[in-house]
Specification:
Blueprint lengths: L1 E5 L3 H28 L4 H14 L4 H23 L9 H7 L11 E3 L4 E4 L4 E6 L2 E9 L2 H9 L1 E10 L2 E9 L12 E6 L3 E5 L4 E3 L4 H17 L2 H36 L2 E5 L1 H8 L4 H25 L3 E4 L24 E3 L6 E3 H22 L24
Parallel strand pairs: 8-11, 11-12
Antiparallel strand pairs: 1-5, 1-7, 2-6, 3-4, 4-5, 6-7, 8-9, 9-10, 13-14
Bound molecules: zinc ion.
GO molecular function: DNA binding
Pfam family, one: Cas12f1-like_TNB
Family: In the C-terminal section; belongs to the transposase 35 family. In the N-terminal section; belongs to the transposase 2 family.
Length: about 400
């Protein structure tokens, strides 16, 4: 995903704004229909709503994207409910999520594709469909590395959105993949956690997302703003949340890059815990922070998976059961072995180890076993896609 900042004139900006607004008004209409009729699949929903969305002035590409956006949003919601993100059946959060149609903000992102949007890299301008016809020559700016990626890769779908008054285009790029390493020389086990974001069986450890001092300061600020409850306080809170997400995203990019680079360099595969274990671990935390941590976990898992695929590094997902309380040295298993968050002392052989490091070694071993089992079963390729990871990067352009 490459980010491009648009620099529209005020006239162009108002065309973009009214286009985005109408698209989202239509998305809300489609969402209401979907909710009332109980029709959530893109294809079926299109039959029901395409005509009226077109009649509102949307081009055929835009109309299809609006409908697919709604179908995807319900799909994501359903997956979230299934994964327990909204609590048990009957809980307040779950009832709230299920009892009304999904709504879109007036400036929520709208997808575009090559048929209704194009970037002229040399000229540094963008041309795209709007309600008032094709808008040409919108200047844009981006980093040098983003420009290089855009020049080298085929562009997929892009999301147009307005964030804090800035116009952004997030372009999905299709990066060429290396052929899969079919003969990995062992596996790097990766333990994901809260205190340590990632610990590998090869000795790499990425410490927590924030220093405790920073965290305490942020929490104090958050409490003060929440108590205030004014509109501007909410705005500041929102901005703070975004900043926090951006930070976590940057960290996740660095950590995943480093792990995948090591696996590639040493000819190894990567073993990750399957998603369920991660959810269990964050379940007891406070809802808002838990949501953030669980989001950050998933993102890191996704980043590792897609970077590995790009580099041809095999990834296997292992059952997380007992990885944190089995001794990686002697195999002894006892609940009491995990002394606390950080310490592991084996009652079998007496070894003292960092708890996450010990877990990551177990994950590595499980990964090797899973890989060998996959090969013995003469399956054409061992599992390398996701078991339970959502993958947003593989969106396909919609056909009519
Ligand atoms: Zn032991």
């Amino acid at each position: 995903m490459v980010q491009v900042r648009l620099l529209p004139t005020s006239e162009q900006a108002s065309a973009l704004r009214s286009t985005l607004h109408v698209c989202n008004v239509q998305a809300n209409e489609v969402s209401r229909t979907a909710f009332e009729r109980g029709v959530f699949r893109n294809h079926d929903l299109r039959k029901l709503t395409y005509r009226s969305v077109r009649d509102a002035g949307l081009g055929s590409q835009a109309a299809q994207h609006v409908i697919k956006k709604v179908a995807d949003a319900y799909g994501t919601l359903r997956a979230g409910i299934r994964a327990g993100n909204f609590g048990r059946p009957g809980s307040r959060r779950r009832i709230k999520a299920e009892s009304k149609p999904i709504t879109f903000r007036p400036d929520a992102a709208q997808p575009f594709d090559r048929r209704n949007m194009s970037l002229a890299l040399d000229a540094g301008t963008l041309s795209l469909w709007t309600l008032n016809g094709r808008l040409k020559g919108v200047p844009f700016a981006c980093s040098t590395s983003a420009r290089r990626t855009l020049a080298e890769c085929r562009h997929g779908e892009s999301d147009l959105l307005c964030r804090d008054g800035k116009w952004l285009l997030l372009v999905t790029v299709e990066v060429a993949e290396q052929p899969l390493n079919e003969e990995p020389d062992g596996f790097i086990g990766v333990d994901l956690g809260i205190a340590n974001i990632a610990t590998t069986s090869t000795g790499y450890r990425a410490a927590g997302r924030e220093s405790s001092r920073h965290r305490a300061r942020q929490a104090r600020l958050r409490r003060r703003l929440q108590a205030k409850g004014t509109k501007s306080a909410k705005r500041v809170l929102k901005r703070q949340r975004r900043r926090e997400q951006r930070r976590a995203r940057d960290v996740n990019h660095c950590v995943s890059k480093r792990i995948v680079a090591e696996a590639e360099r040493t000819g190894r595969g990567i073993a990750l815990e399957d998603l369920t274990g991660i959810r269990d671990r964050v379940r007891h935390r406070r809802p808002q922070r838990a949501a953030f941590h669980s989001w950050a976990f998933h993102q890191l898992g996704n980043f590792i998976t897609y970077k590995a695929r790009r580099a041809g590094v095999p990834v296997v997902f292992v059952d997380p059961a007992h990885t944190s309380r089995t001794c990686a040295d002697c195999g002894h298993r006892e609940r009491a072995d995990r002394v606390d968050q950080a310490l592991f002392i084996c009652r079998g052989c007496g070894v003292v180890a960092h708890a996450d490091r010990n877990a990551s070694r177990n994950i590595a071993r499980k990964g090797e076993v899973a890989w060998d089992a996959g090969r013995r079963s003469s399956a054409p390729a061992p599992p390398r896609g996701g078991v339970g990871w959502t993958r947003r990067a593989t969106r396909q352009p919609v056909g009519p």
